[in-house]
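Support request, please re-run this one:
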Amino acid sequence: MKRCEVLIVGAGPTGLVLALWLSKLGIKVRIIDRTSGPGTTSRALAVQARTLELYRQLDLTAAVLERGHRVPAANLWVKGQVAAHLPFSVIGAFVTPYPFLHIFPQDEHEQLLIERLQGFGVEVERETELMGFNQDGQGVSAQLRHGDGLEEHCEANYLAGCDGARSTVRKALDIDFPGGTYQQVFYVADVQASGPALNGELHVDIDEADFLAVFPLAGSGRARLIGTVRDERAEHPDQLRFEDVGQRAIEHLKIQIQQVNWFSTYRVHHRVAEHFSRQRAFLLGDAAHVHSPAGGQGMNTGIGDAINLAWKLASVLRGKAQPGLLDTYEIERSAFAQRLVSTTDQVFNFITADGRVAALLRTRLAPRLIPRLVAFKTAREFLFRTVSQVTLNYRYMPLSTGNAGHVQGGDRLPWVAEGGRDNFNCLNRMCWQVQVYGAVSASLVQWCSGHGIPVDVFIWSEAHEAAGLVRDAVYLIRPDGYIALARSNADAQVLEDYFEERGLRPG
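Re-run finished. Output below.
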């Protein structure tokens, strides 16, 4: 019998990132997957800025940037012309070190994560299926079946279900998965093509014709097409070929296709599990929430789930926190998933709605309003912050408290690169830490030193003020880079009370 501390079911990006984070924190994991090998098609594409920021803790960001394709701008097309041009580099220049959309196909992404996981001596156990499990106050007892038919009994402290929308773990926990399925059928095609929409930027046609988005892939003339299938063609999507889908939107974007490398159809679901955990078992990624592909949020949200849960599991397993800390996983991530499904629903309905009124909104009103809207700096930043997930926060939740200026407990730490110092470099550490912009008391530094909490002090500047930070305020930062406590006049007792009230032990 193989025993581990965390048994991870599912080796997609969510499960692999969870395994990596836990392994780096010294937690013994097993990760199983019922498939015979990693995916070979580029399903999810977008790696958002917030994911790139968090990947710095695993030294993954540079490799992702090197292997993928940077998308500098998005274009909205109407009636065969570009109606709006949105340069990410201008919009997000002072928001994040990564002011762009990054394309890194899921199959390549998974391979990179697998390689890094092997560096910790962990292999994905393929053709291994979870048959069932029991749990009690002491741990989880799981029954596994291997590809050769042999069955195995596995003991673990905790179980993580990263096994997709048809999750075996979720079904075994008898957790409802309310929501529905959109009527529209989508197609996805990886193509070799030419034309003005093959310039390395994102292009979206919002005309009255079939919806179409063109995502650039690495390499000249390579792109991913995502479009709708309408009318009677949608009745039997499994029988469709690329030649059967509508060509109007493709013609509107002036795309000349030379070769189709991959083609598939699918329906989009929108569901959120009623609970993200039960006792010692957790749901992450598509096992917990599925939504429309609008905005490229799916994979990034699953990765966010993994990072949120990983440090909490490690803290409890190493005696640095009471088991109640794990309750905050559902509180924080379920709230975000609900908001995300609601937001992507609205966007999805706008871009796919049929009828004369819907067509008028997309072709007449939107082309006029969107350019005017994005002319305002605040509107551009709001759009970028939302899509890139840097605006995601855990305000008013159990681990979040206090405020200093515009920054509140639960917020992502504002990024500032000033005077040769990047305040995100400190976040590469997977630990509790404190940042102060200005002066810090010797007693607070002494208390932090005695509890193993690094303190980074930055010389106050106008750039810090512009980012919403407050001079001499104390920002206590969680191991996942989010602010736990923000206080203008904080002393050592404030930090002492924070940890004691939540049953946490730093260091």
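The domain at 3-65+104-177+273-319 is CATH 3.50.50.60 (FAD/NAD(P)-binding domain). Residues 436 and 474 are 5 Å apart (CA to CA).
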